[in-house]
Amino acid sequence: MAMKVYKPGQGYWTRVLSAVCIGLLVLAAAAWAWEQAGTVRLPAKSHNIAVRAATGDISVGDSITYLRPSDDYNAGPEPFGAGVVESVNISDDRFGTVVVGSFTTDEVRDDFGQATALTIGTTGTDNSVETFGAQIQSASANPVFPRNYLQASAAGLMMLAGFVFIYWFTGVGRKPNEFLIATDGEMKKVNWSTKREIIGSTWVVIISAFLIAGILYGIDQVFAMIFRAVGVLET
């Protein structure tokens, strides 16, 4: 089905150029939406945690606890949430990577950066770990879905809204198109200068600018000589 256009064939160039200009603004807005969507913090599906100084055994499916420094310096680290081990790869030198998901609290899911260690089991008064323990070297979140999906959606919605507006403004909207058609009609009434007239006017402007500059320079020099003679300006 063909798209309808209000009074087709009238005001062609004003419609086309208006659509092009608005389209450029829409593309700029879509680029802005893409960039802004890239800064949105998505909920984490899992954490990739690089660990060191690992002790004990760990396996997929284990419930693992996140530890953070306690406000009481003498109390040792305190637990603030847990998750389930989804994969583990720890080498003989006690370095490796643990992927943790299925978090027990939103705090540990979203604020995992405050964690300093992982443990399975309980921590005694001497900070010993019964089953497994490791220090967190670095951690990163795996979002619930790829970030570029959100960016593409934001940019796509911005472009869709913009193109709908363009179609209405330059295609089917009665008032805006009446204005564009009237503008096109007025433009046809303009008496455009010939090439010879434009060249002649340009030379007049250039020569006039140099003449005015020369006159002002001469006046400036005369006044400078007078002020030096009366001692206002020092040489």
What does this structure look like?
- The model has no long low-confidence stretch (mean pLDDT 88).
- This protein has 5 helices and 6 strands.
- It has helices at 12-37, 106-110, 147-172, 174-188, 195-229, and strands at residues 44-56, 63-68, 78-90, 96-101, 117-120, 132-143.
- Strands 1-4-3-2-5-6 form a 6-stranded antiparallel beta barrel.
- It has 3 domains: 12-37 and 148-187, no CATH class; 45-141; 194-235.
- The radius of gyration is 36 Å and the shape is elongated.
- The chain has 235 residues and is of the alpha+beta class.
- The N and C termini lie far apart (84 Å).
- Helix 1 (12-37) packs antiparallel against helix 3 (147-172), helix 1 packs across helix 4 (174-188) and helix 3 (147-172) packs across helix 4 (174-188).
Tally of DSSP helical segments: 5
Query: Approximately what portion of the residues adopt beta-strand conformation?
Result: 15-25%
Q: Can you list the strand order of the major beta sheet?
A: 1-4-3-2-5-6
- Helix proportion: 40-55%
Helices and strands, in N-to-C order?
A: HEEEEHEEHHH
Mean pLDDT: 88
Q: Strand count, sense and closure of the main sheet?
A: 6 strands, antiparallel, barrel
Q: Looking at the structure, what is the overall shape?
A: elongated
Which regions contain 5 or more consecutive residues with pLDDT less than 50?
Answer: none
* Helix vs. strand class: alpha+beta
Gyration radius over CA: 36 Å
User: Could you say how many structural domains there are in total?
Assistant: 3
Ends distance: 84 Å
Number of strands: 6
